[in-house]
Amino acid sequence: MEPIILKRADHNVSRQNMTSAAVKVLYRLKDEGYTAYVAGGGVRDLLLNRNPKDFDVATNATPEQIRKMFRNCRLVGRRFRLAHILFRGEVIETATFRAPVPEDGDDTIHCENTLQVGESGMVMRDNIFGTPEEDAMRRDFTINALFYNIADFSIIDYAGGLKDLDDKIIRVIGDPDKRFAEDPVRMIRAARFAGALGFEIEKEAYESICKNKDLLTHAAPSRMYEEVQKLFFCGHAEAVFQWLERTDLLHPMFHDFSHWIYEDKTRHEWVIQTLEQMDRWRKAGLRVHPALLFALIFGEYHEFLIQQLIDAGQTPTDAARNAIQGHLKGMCENVRVPKQVIYQVCDIMSNQSRFERTNGRRPQRFMQSRGFLDAFLYFKFSSKACNRHQELLEWWTGFRKSNPPKAPARKSRGSKKHKPEGDAPNQ
Q1: What is the tally of helices (H) and strands (E) in the chain?
Q2: Domain check: are 313 and 180 in the same one?
Q3: Same domain for 103 and 29?
Q4: Which single residue of 37, 228, 263, 300 could bond 147 by disulfide (Cβ 3.0 to 4.6 Å)?
């Protein structure tokens, strides 16, 4: 298949819009005699005049050859063997061009390792090397199959991605049913790209997602946790959530929660307000703890569960911990939330009752505690979302202003450095 090639004068992608680390990797590979492309999302975003979150490199050098070239390189992954080239504050993921998954598992002409496919059709291990064209055609969507060639600064399109960028279409490369069976997480990625870019999902792919959504139960729970964070931290969480609902992907991801919100459509309002807040924080350049994300998204649901346990005779503190751990630990079969994040969500929710105690030294001690800021952000959000505790919110807002947090004391030479608590947004 002859690719469409845009010469440098015919596109807007420039090395000046790439990180110095990405350019160094590209030129090192090129100078050593290898083909070196920027691949996937980095090219897509630059063509759309967006700022890529990272730059991935594709090359005909094998992982071992890449490791010999870069002292700051480590090889990672079992299913896909990748080279991570480490720079200060940045990792350039570098992959060898891949061949398509063969129809016959014994057909491993370019294989360094082995191909392994599960019973559901999901690819478990795949290190079959190929050509740039084969690599492009085995990627998930046409808009992610574009290459930028450092040798002549051209854009290379084997899959029709340039046209789909113009048409604002998310199109699967190949048969959607087969491609989603190979990797069910692609369905979530389709929803994320559609929401984040303001694109439509092509009809055949959309119907395939609706039909195959339950394949998500075969996806690795730890990978699902990473994808959930991408969904809701992408800066377009509200639009992404709408696609999750349209395709019914929400159900296999968050089974009990999705049933609960579908029982009463008014419960959507909390979730929508949460996602709008996430998008505002993201646009302001603020980072949010995953614990605060899960506390907010599931907040109304958790309050419902907590109240049920309180009505059954448990104390508010015990009810909060038992309800949240029961929900989030059960969810780990599909989305593996780390234990530390679960405990932090419990702290956020169990600390809500402390906002009612405004006498004596309790407010000062609470405000100086490690989990105060996330608890306050939840309290502030829930007060406004549900129009409750307005007087308490005003009191705590004033109290924080009149009692700013003290700067950590300067430590003597040789002592341990102060460790910040995290990246929760300041309000």
Answers
A1: 20, 12
A2: no
A3: yes
A4: 37
Which of the following is catalytic: 45, 56, 157, 374?
56
Q: Which domain holds residue 106?
A: 1-167
CATH number at residue 347: 1.10.3090.10
Is 56 assigned a catalytic role?
A: yes
Residue pair 213/186 in contact (Cβ under 8 Å)? The answer is no
Please indicate whether residue 45 is annotated as part of the active site: no
Which candidate in 140, 157, 279, 347 is catalytic? Answer: 140
Domain limit, last residue, from 139, 167, 195: 167
What backbone torsions phi and psi does residue 121 show, to the nearest 5 degrees?
Answer: 100, -5
* Residue-by-residue DSSP string for 31-91: HTT--EEEETHHHHHHHTT---S--EEEESS-HHHHHHH-TTEEEE-SSS-EEEEEETTEE
107 and 175 share a domain?
no
Number of domains in the chain: 3
3-state secondary structure of 125: strand
User: Would residue 410 count as lying in a domain?
Assistant: no
From the list 336, 342, 340, the residue with the least C-alpha distance to 322 is 342
Which pLDDT tens digits describe the chain residue by residue (427 residues)?
A: 799 999 999 999 999 999 999 999 999 999 999 999 999 999 999 999 999 989 999 999 999 999 999 999 999 987 678 999 999 989 999 999 998 766 654 444 444 444 444 455 454 445 688 999 999 999 999 999 999 999 999 999 999 999 999 999 999 999 999 999 999 999 999 999 999 999 999 999 999 999 999 999 999 999 999 999 999 999 999 999 999 999 999 999 999 999 999 999 899 999 999 999 999 999 999 989 999 999 999 999 999 999 999 999 999 999 999 999 999 999 999 999 999 999 999 999 999 999 999 999 999 999 999 999 999 999 999 999 999 999 999 999 999 999 876 655 554 444 444 333 334 444 4
Residue 107 known to be catalytic: no
Q: What's the pTM?
A: 0.85
